[in-house]
Automatic annotation (TrEMBL):
<protein>
    <recommendedName>
        <fullName>Glycerate kinase</fullName>
        <ecNumber>2.7.1.31</ecNumber>
    </recommendedName>
</protein>
<feature type="domain" description="MOFRL-associated">
    <location>
        <begin position="102"/>
        <end position="353"/>
    </location>
</feature>
<dbReference type="InterPro" id="IPR007835">
    <property type="entry name" value="MOFRL"/>
</dbReference>
<keyword id="KW-0808">Transferase</keyword>
<keyword id="KW-0418">Kinase</keyword>
<comment type="similarity">
    <text>Belongs to the glycerate kinase type-2 family.</text>
</comment>
<dbReference type="InterPro" id="IPR038614">
    <property type="entry name" value="GK_N_sf"/>
</dbReference>
<dbReference type="InterPro" id="IPR037035">
    <property type="entry name" value="GK-like_C_sf"/>
</dbReference>
<dbReference type="GO" id="GO:0008887">
    <property type="term" value="F:glycerate kinase activity"/>
</dbReference>
<dbReference type="InterPro" id="IPR039760">
    <property type="entry name" value="MOFRL_protein"/>
</dbReference>
<dbReference type="Pfam" id="PF05161">
    <property type="entry name" value="MOFRL"/>
</dbReference>
<feature type="domain" description="MOFRL">
    <location>
        <begin position="486"/>
        <end position="604"/>
    </location>
</feature>
<keyword id="KW-0547">Nucleotide-binding</keyword>
<keyword id="KW-0067">ATP-binding</keyword>
<dbReference type="InterPro" id="IPR025286">
    <property type="entry name" value="MOFRL_assoc_dom"/>
</dbReference>
<dbReference type="GO" id="GO:0005737">
    <property type="term" value="C:cytoplasm"/>
</dbReference>
<dbReference type="GO" id="GO:0005524">
    <property type="term" value="F:ATP binding"/>
</dbReference>
């Protein structure tokens, strides 16, 4: 894997890199270590040197290492930097259960995206001048704040805003999932609950993640509040994942039942969240900037907890305070591409066709002056609206990595933009588990190994970049030298093409697919399931995977053994999209992950734990 030209001693090389990186990080704070792999012409590792480089934070250490290496007169050097986490020589005791560690890491990630710290860092309130500063904008406060919100995280967000700015708040309305207040009370999460004397009215609705009358009543109350504001008022809008369902506002004559039908059609036929919210923005009043327009001439400050890859303001909660770019034409194209146009409710189909026709009848701008004038009007229309992302999946993944390091693992955040079919992601990460276990063996990595090469080819074909493969191999080599196990972390959101009639969610489906592939990969001459210490966890950050009350599931070798004992056909359950039923049967449901509603939503978290083999098992020569 590591091919280089040796032109100096390993110690001299590592000292050089350490000096260069220290020069670039002199003002930074947290710990990091650089590991330098020096190889000969045959690709055999001749030295692996650890260099402490002081304290770093926030900055991408891998890029720093590359900058340092670029200054050294050597053609090929393989180096890796472990961001934020100091790997110490003390060996990890390998008597813990990776399944329990994975659940611990996941729950730590969720705690990291609770609203308090994120919002407090964004809002700078000066009590002496009654001024609120948010990035480069200032707001003069004089008991002129109104608060609205919708989503799975806005209860805690509203608590923080009221704690900071309460004396300037007149009133507010938030729409949250059914039962959230009770669950926060039961779990003693008082910082996620409004104070007893709060000025903010709470609506609970959208039971089972579906639009209902309670959510609709909340949206009408929010619309009425916004439409009564004046130019002296400030509307603070709190948005998070789940906001689209919790604030339904269909254009007449579309009904709530038809909205639900449209959502089911899209999700069951593989629409991703961007496609789903693109359609919603075009058929609902408050979405696609509609709420901000209702609030004019008031100023609008929108605080957004991102639940979509790339943090697109206009798509999170369907962009209630962001101008809408996709047109009805885009919606119609999505419906045709997914093959559901003929099953779309008639009122929605006719509405989109009528709006598309109206757009076609608008004269196009033909002169440079008219285009410039239109841009000017557009800027004026949105000049009093500020949209700020206060948190996202990356924050959760970094917190997960820090916790994994504390537990004694060498963590690697592989990606925060994980996408694809849920079961394909599960298949892929099971193959990655085997790849890592083979890389732990020095013989398998130092020479040609056809099985390892085939696995690498399969991983790349499945979407894991070649550069990521190299980083994984490098991390495994470091973990081998310091006697650590590996923890791979990924964040993002998958989809499911529903073909069966079972019960489940995309995360449970990923976990079931991973179990199927693990059984296939580890029933070989080189390794059996019983000898393998690894696990795969996939969970939804909001604590609700699909229409179940579980966050997701975790699978390991014990789960596979139990499945065999019960003589269950995992493929049958996967084909019927019935993952929840299978996990409920095995081990008394112990492989299901239950967190209850978490009060946040930053998409999904995937964790792959792979323990270092205690003995070499691979002898490819």
């Amino acid at each position: 894997m590591f091919i280089g030209t040796l032109q100096c001693s390993a110690e001299k090389m590592s000292m050089f890199l350490g000096r260069k990186i220290f020069q670039r990080t002199v003002n930074l704070r947290q710990k990091a270590s650089l590991y330098t792999n020096i190889t000969d012409h045959g690709g055999r590792l001749v030295s692996n040197v650890r260099t402490n480089i002081g304290h770093v934070s926030g900055l991408d250490m891998y890029n720093i290492a590359n900058l340092a290496v670029s200054d050294f007169p050597c053609r090929h050097i393989s180096s890796s930097a472990v961001r934020f986490y100091e790997v110490v020589p003390k060996p990890k005791e390998n008597n813990t259960d990776p399944k329990l560690d994975a659940a611990d890491v996941f729950k730590t990630a969720i705690r990291a995206v609770r609203p308090k710290a994120m919002i407090e860092s964004m809002l700078q309130y000066n009590q002496l001048t009654s001024t609120l500063k948010v990035e480069d904008k200032y707001y003069k406060l004089n008991r002129n704040i109104y608060v609205v919100g919708f989503g799975k995280a806005v209860l805690g967000m509203a608590r923080v805003v009221e704690d900071m700015l309460g004396k300037h708040i007149n009133t507010g309305i938030i729409s949250i999932p059914q039962g959230l207040q009770e669950e926060m009370t039961d779990s003693q999460n008082r910082e996620m609950l409004l104070a007893p004397n709060s000025k903010i009215v709470v609506y609970e609705g959208a039971a089972d993640n579906a639009v209902d009358e309670s959510a609709y009543e909340a949206s009408k109350a929010i619309q009425n509040l916004a439409s009564d504001l004046t130019e002296n008022d400030l509307l603070i809008v709190l948005c998070s994942g789940g906001g689209s369902t919790l604030c339904p506002s269909p254009h007449p004559p579309i009904t709530l039942q038809e909205l639900n039908c449209m959502t089911r059609l899209l999700t069951r036929n593989g629409a991703n969240i961007k496609e789903l919210n693109t359609v919603r923005k075009n058929i609902e009043i408050l979405k696609g900037g509609g709420l901000a327009l209702q609030a004019k001439p008031a100023k609008v400050l929108s605080l957004i907890l991102s639940s979509i890859i790339g943090d697109p303001h206009d798509l999170i909660a369907s962009g209630p305070t962001c101008p809408s770019q996709p047109t009805p034409h885009h919606c119609i194209e999505i419906l045709f591409r997914l093959g559901i146009m003929d099953r779309t409710p008639e009122s929605i189909r006719k509405y989109l066709e009528r709006e598309a026709k109206n757009i076609n009848s608008i004269p196009a701008f033909t002169t440079q002056d008219s285009v410039a004038e239109n841009a000017k009007r557009y800027a004026l229309l949105w000049k009093d609206v500020q949209n700020i992302v206060v948190g996202n999946n990356s924050i959760a993944c970094e917190a997960a990595a820090e916790r994994a390091a504390e537990l004694g693992y060498l963590p690697l955040v592989l990606t925060t933009v994980l996408t694809g079919e849920a079961k394909e992601v599960g298949f892929l990460y099971a193959k990655l588990a085997k790849f890592i276990m083979m890389c732990f063996d020095r013989h398998a990595c130092s020479g040609h190994n056809s099985e390892l090469s085939m696995l690498e080819t399969s991983l790349v074909a499945g979407g894991i970049k070649k550069t990521w493969i190299n980083t994984i191999c490098n991390s495994v080599d470091i973990a081998h030298n310091v006697n650590r196990d590996i923890c791979i972390i990924a964040g993002g959101e998958t989809v499911v093409h529903v073909r069966g009639s079972g019960i489940g969610g995309k995360n449970m489906e990923s976990a079931l697919a991973a179990a199927i592939q693990m059984k296939e990969e580890f029933r070989t001459k080189t390794m059996s399931v019983a000898e393998t210490r690894m696990c795969f966890l996939s969970c939804d950050s909001d604590g609700q995977d699909g229409l179940t009350k579980m966050a997701g599931a975790v699978v390991d070798q014990d789960f596979l053994i139990k499945v065999d004992e019960y003589e269950l056909d995992m493929n049958k359950y996967l084909d019927d999209n019935d993952s929840y039923t299978l996990f409920s049967h095995v081990n008394g449901g112990q492989n299901l992950v239950r967190t209850k509603l978490t009060g946040t939503n930053i998409m999904d978290i995937v964790i792959l734990m792979v323990q270092k083999p205690r003995q070499h098992k691979y002898h490819p020569f």
